[in-house]
Design goal:
The protein is an alpha/beta fold and 85 residues long. The protein has three helices and three strands. 34% of the residues lie in helices and 13% in strands. Strands 2-1-3 form a three-stranded parallel β-sheet, with helices on one face.
Length: 85
Amino acid sequence: MTANIENLIRNKLYGSHREMMQDYLKRLNKDENAKVFCFNSQDEHIRRVLLKHNWIENVNSSSMIYDLKWNYVESVDEVRGLLDG
């Protein structure tokens, strides 16, 4: 279901990242002010804490729909290309 929602959102133009996030959360019947995270790591304690604080997990780790992306990397080279924001 979330993959279908993500496809709908990907094909739409938004004025801001927050507007896109609110649309995503609305389509999931979640609070539009909730925070979304993607998680690709061995640090399960981080996932548990985020869920405990009512964050919503987007299980599509390649998604652009998130407020926080927690990713395990083994090399500095893997993050050199990150852009501000």
